[in-house]
Amino acid sequence: GGKVEVKNGLLYGVKPETIISHAKQALGTPYSTANRAGGPGKGFDCSSFAYWAYEGYPGLMKNGWGSPGGVGWTGTLIDEGKPRDMAAIKAGDILLHNPQSTGGHAALYIGNGQIQHSADPNQIAPLDVWGGFEYARQILAYAKGGLVIPALRKGATINYDNTLANLHRGETVL
Q1: 79-103 as b/e, with b when 16 or more CB fall inside 10 Å?
Q2: How many whole angstroms separate alpha carbon 172 and alpha carbon 153?
Q3: CA-to-CA distance for 66 and 132, rounded, in angstroms?
């Protein structure tokens, strides 16, 4: 439920399962730098795949599919969403290793200690593959307990307390 909304670089109203099932369409896609914007079955590199996992939400990413900035790379992924501590990663987070280097790597965390990434070919792997990742970027907006905060209409009245989002029962959304 809830409206899908992009706010402050986060995506509201979308569950991790939605992103992960979309991403799985890329499994088996060959690794390619020359054809990195080829798409599923044609070609991805690690960062173009991470951006593609979220390609259905215009305005969410500064770079990425269909954005004015172009597809982007690991060095631009570090500026997407919000930072998250590696000890607290959640499904849907984008994980980065050495993002400012040409030898960097990006992956989509899919939960249960697993990632999906563009190795050759695009595949699911353990979180510690190739030495693991140092950075996580939160793209999906979660409330406590991993629940998605419902998107709020202007003029709606809050009917529950949500301290994480600083919402209080009886308030009106401005």
Answers
A1: ebbeebeeeebebbbbbbbebeeee
A2: 10
A3: 29
